[in-house]
Amino acid sequence: MAGHRRLSVAPMMDWTDPACRYLLRLISRHTQLYTEMVPAQALWHGHAARFLKGHPSEAPVAIQLGGSDPAQLAYGAELAEAWGYDEINLNVGCPSDRVQSGRFGACLMREPALVSELVAAMRAATRLPVTVKSRIGVDDHDSYDALCRFTQAMIDGGAHALVVHARKAWLQGLSPKQNRDVPPLRYDRVAALKGDFPGIPIILNGGIRDLDTAKSWLDTLDGTMIGREAYHNPWLLAEADHRIFGASPDSRPEREAVVHAYRDYVVDHWRSGVPITRFTRHLSGLFQGLPGARIWRRTLSERGAVRGAGPEVIDQALEARHAAIPSGAETSTA
């Protein structure tokens, strides 16, 4: 699965759920996808079906686990392999209060020996690659030397690759949202890290919003990870298979074909009583930059909010978009 790390979509809480991953896989065959963070403790207490269910066509997909207990994380790794995931990723980057109270996420960067132990426990429990997603530092524990010590501890634990968000995290004083934007990006530190640790794959995360930027880093680093932009504008991945992975230019899908295929998925997975917006929210940005994009978004939102609404909302949004496109305007679905 190493080749798929050349480009990936970041794990994002409340966003990269199974429906989102199914949609993104319809757009790009090769981009690596990640689950939302799954608490290892929840798996330990028997909630595997709730957190691990997905669709076989999502592959290659990595599961991201959060926790600080070696036994719980090892058990989670075993379950992830049994459920068909392709990689185990340990969250050592999330700065939320909820994560800190459970002693996992970014606060673990201050305990590299423990993280090394966690990685080793997961390595012993699964044949899958075990990777770590971190920041470049946390609070005032943010020197380059500290980052190097952390990296060496990950290597000693047996990590197969590191995903490095090129911002440090402030555990006090900044919200999780502010931690995604306020601390400055330090791409130079991630590049330097690769120079000092050439033997381990290093993937850059943070502030990457287009394929040009993502591709430009592939001469220096082993991969790049796109976050929120891939969610709000998923069609940016349509060129990824060709431009990043070397697939034929003909591999690019058509937008409306993706809509229809996703609708079939929704029909199979939506159940009465489940808000259809749980599925349609992932479609909002699909026509970004094209005529009719606004009415597409509005129809999905307004019709989806109607009590009892179902997959027909997708049909209604397509019809509304077509009706809104002036005669002679660009109507390409590519």
From TrEMBL:
The keyword Oxidoreductase applies. One of its GO terms (molecular function) is FMN binding. Belongs to the Dus family. DusA subfamily. Belongs to the dus family. It comes from the Bacteria. Gene3D superfamilies: 1.20.120.1460, Aldolase class I (3.20.20.70). Its EC number is 1.3.1.91. The gene is dusA. Signal peptide: none annotated. Its cofactor is FMN. Catalyzes the synthesis of 5,6-dihydrouridine (D), a modified base found in the D-loop of most tRNAs, via the reduction of the C5-C6 double bond in target uridines. Specifically modifies U20 and U20a in tRNAs. The record marks 91, 177, 180, 294, 297 as: Interacts with tRNA. It catalyses: 5,6-dihydrouridine(20) in tRNA + NAD(+) = uridine(20) in tRNA + NADH + H(+); 5,6-dihydrouridine(20) in tRNA + NADP(+) = uridine(20) in tRNA + NADPH + H(+); 5,6-dihydrouridine(20a) in tRNA + NAD(+) = uridine(20a) in tRNA + NADH + H(+); 5,6-dihydrouridine(20a) in tRNA + NADP(+) = uridine(20a) in tRNA + NADPH + H(+). FMN binds at residues 11-13, 64, 133, 165, 205-207, 227-228. This is tRNA-dihydrouridine(20/20a) synthase. InterPro entries: Aldolase_TIM, DUS-like_FMN-bd, DUS_fam, DusA, tRNA_hU_synthase_CS. The active site is at 94 (proton donor). Residues 9-308 form the DUS-like FMN-binding domain. It holds the Pfam family Dus.
